[in-house]
Write a structure and sequence with these properties.
The protein is mostly helical and 355 residues long. Among the domains are: 61 residues, lambda repressor-like DNA-binding domains (434 Repressor (Amino-terminal Domain), Orthogonal Bundle); 141 residues, Serine Threonine Protein Phosphatase 5, Tetratricopeptide repeat, CATH 1.25.40. It is built from 18 helices and no strands. The longest helix has 32 residues. The N and C termini lie far apart (76 Å).
Length: 355
């Protein structure tokens, strides 16, 4: 069983920008002692090793880095996740067995917490499952410095913890956690749900309206990106269908007859449809779409309105302005979209229509 302690000390020291001499001063040892640690010629005593782990903000498991242990942890963690995904009840016994062996390993604790949360949600009558999930998530948060998975961070763990309190009906604790870790407003929807559970409907409506604006923006980005992927790989029907879906959604969100921010997005969608029609040999239809885009762009540019509060289902008294990178004006947005599509035929058609 080989330990990675020497290389780990050396790597952690360099990450902090310390020399061997500086590290020796930190722990009150000779430079030669540090050299021997990093060369694998000697090993620090246990108490000193604990000080080293604490100094570098890592666990002893991470500091020592036994190859056999790491491999076993990886296998166990993957097995717990797989059993959880399959909703196999055997996962809880598997998780407890792994926790006895590695009680302070982030991966094992986190995967076990996920397992208990999943089964606690399904079996709402067994509160012990949710209580165990809370205990494990709190432990995972303490062990978070060990984490090397970029898809997991403390914000996510706190969100999982808050969701359990929400399920248990402890809305006060759930709201406290969600609000404390709502970076980038990622938990606005959940906060709105908790407020509804507390009977605070007016406050919930404001929070959910902001969440809805974020949802619309994300959906627009998703539709345009997917459409571009489809179009550039020859899947023109899929590209057309997803753009038409976006146009229909925008129309459904319209409040009143005047220009609204989503008109800018419609212009991009219509430009995409024009490109697709050209690629499939329908030049007349392509021209029709591009003319529609131009008419809508000129209408918006004559009286621009970037307040998303003018859309349906968004009830916010204060202005909630939308921003994008398509161009200073709506007409500029069409021109820039054509450049992105890199089609000379579409560019020539636009120039003839825009005259």
């Amino acid at each position: 069983m080989k330990s990675n302690l020497p290389s780990n000390i050396r790597t952690l020291r360099k990450e902090k920008g310390l020399t061997q001499e500086q590290l020796s001063e930190v722990f009150g040892v000779t430079v030669g002692a540090v050299h021997k640690w990093e060369a694998g010629l000697s090993t620090p005593e246990l108490t000193l090793m604990m000080e080293i782990a604490d100094f570098f903000d890592v666990s002893l498991d991470t500091l020592t880095g036994f190859d056999v242990r790491d491999n076993r942890i990886g296998v166990l963690g993957a097995r717990i996740r797989k059993l959880t995904d399959k909703m196999d009840t055997a996962v809880l016994a598997e998780a407890e067995k792994a926790l006895k062996k590695y009680p302070n390993n982030f991966k094992i604790v986190c995967e076990s917490a996920n397992a208990y949360r999943a089964f606690g949600i399904i079996d709402g009558t067994d509160k012990k499952l949710l209580d165990r999930a809370i205990e494990l998530y709190e432990q995972a948060i303490r062990l978070a410095p060990q984490n090397s998975d970029p898809n997991i961070d403390a914000t996510l763990l706190y969100g999982q913890l808050a969701s359990i309190y929400q399920i248990k009906g402890d809305f006060k604790k759930s709201l406290e956690l969600y609000k404390a870790h709502n970076a980038g407003y990622i938990y606005n929807t959940q906060i709105g749900q908790v407020l509804i559970g507390m009977g605070k409907y007016d406050e919930a409506e404001i929070c959910l309206s902001y969440a809805f604006t974020g949802h619309i923006g994300n959906r627009i980005n998703l539709i345009t990106a997917k459409a571009l992927c489809y179009a550039k790989t020859g899947r023109y029907k899929d590209a057309k269908d997803i753009i038409l879906m976006g146009l229909n959604e925008n129309e459904y969100l319209r409040r009143g007859d005047g220009p609204m921010y989503l008109d800018r997005i419609d212009c991009i969608y219509l430009t995409g449809l024009s490109y697709i029609e050209l690629q499939t040999g329908h030049k007349r239809k392509a021209a029709e779409y591009l003319k529609q885009a131009r008419e809508k762009a000129i209408r918006f540019d004559s009286s621009p309105d970037y307040d998303t509060g003018n859309e349906r289902f968004i009830d916010i008294e204060d202005a909630c302005m939308a921003y994008d990178t398509i161009g200073r004006t709506c007409v500029d947005g069409i021109t820039n979209s054509i450049k992105l599509l890199d089609s000379d035929e579409l560019r020539v058609l636009w120039e003839s229509i825009n005259k």
